[in-house]
Amino acid sequence: MNANNAYLVCASQRSGSTLLVESLAATGVAGKPLEFFQYFPTSSLSPQPREWFAGVDDPEIISLLDETDPGTVDNRSSEQWRRDVLAEGITGNGVWGGKLMWNQTPLLIARSRVGDGSLRGAIRWLFGGADPLFVHVHRDNLASQAVSMWRAVQTRVWRDDGNSHLDDRAVYNAEAIAHLARILAEQERRWREWFAAEDIPVIDIEFGQLTKDPTGTTAQVLRALQLDPALAPPAPLKPQSNARSKEWVTRYRADAERNGYPL
């Protein structure tokens, strides 16, 4: 594998990036684009519900979130971690894929131990000195994104996998949604600033475009990787949005207008 055969989907949570990477993975030739960079070395776990609300002391919000599992320390060296990530993300034709959220970039930088402490340096360390193809997935409707995030963080259900009944325990909370909206908006702002500062060309994909034509959008990325666009599959995931999602978005918009929450 070399950087010319690698791509990195850069996004924030609930932006539609999972739909894209699952579609790419389903081709069998576009790498195995997992979220390799989400795991804390101190726990070997991705951010847990209460970790998304670090610094929040509202007992009502905290009571709606599962307690934090301490997990197990990951003792792999940087080089062993790098080898594992590259091996896990590659398909037999030598194409590697992965997904990186902005909140995960400090973990990647720490793993790389690059001298300048830069994200570009950490990415180039991962790929042997060069850049991968960058794919930027974003969602312009922040209210819908934050509502989706709040439901997922509460229930720990991140996709429609037949366990939709678990969503029944989700409770609307405007302050919690606003807190997550600030995080998601900040992530998107940082991605855009980084791409501009580093003069990085990206394939730009918005949630609405992706959900309207997942096959065509996947084909766009395949072409950029010089792979057969005809391999782009029908959407492999069902949308999680439902009538309650729409109701909560409407409710949050009204609360945001009254209270100055982010939209």
Overall SS class: alpha/beta
Q: Could you state the order of secondary-structure elements as H and E?
A: EHHHEHHEHHEHHH
Q: How widely separated are the two ends?
A: 41 Å
Mean pLDDT: 93
Strand content: 5-15%
CATH domain class: Alpha Beta
CA-atom Rg in angstroms: 19 Å
Q: Output the number of helix runs.
A: 10
Provide an overview of this structure.
The protein is built from ten helices and four strands. It has 263 residues and is of the alpha/beta class. The protein has a single domain (3-259), classed as Rossmann fold, CATH 3.40.50.300. It has a four-stranded parallel sheet, with helices on both faces. The longest helix is centred in the last third of the chain and has 24 residues, at 174-197. The mean pLDDT is 93. One of its GO terms (molecular function) is transferase activity. It comes from Gordonia amarae NBRC 15530. InterPro entries: P-loop_NTPase, Stf0, Sulfotransferase_Stf0_dom. It catalyses: alpha,alpha-trehalose + 3'-phosphoadenylyl sulfate = 2-O-sulfo-alpha,alpha-trehalose + adenosine 3',5'-bisphosphate + H(+). This is Trehalose 2-sulfotransferase.
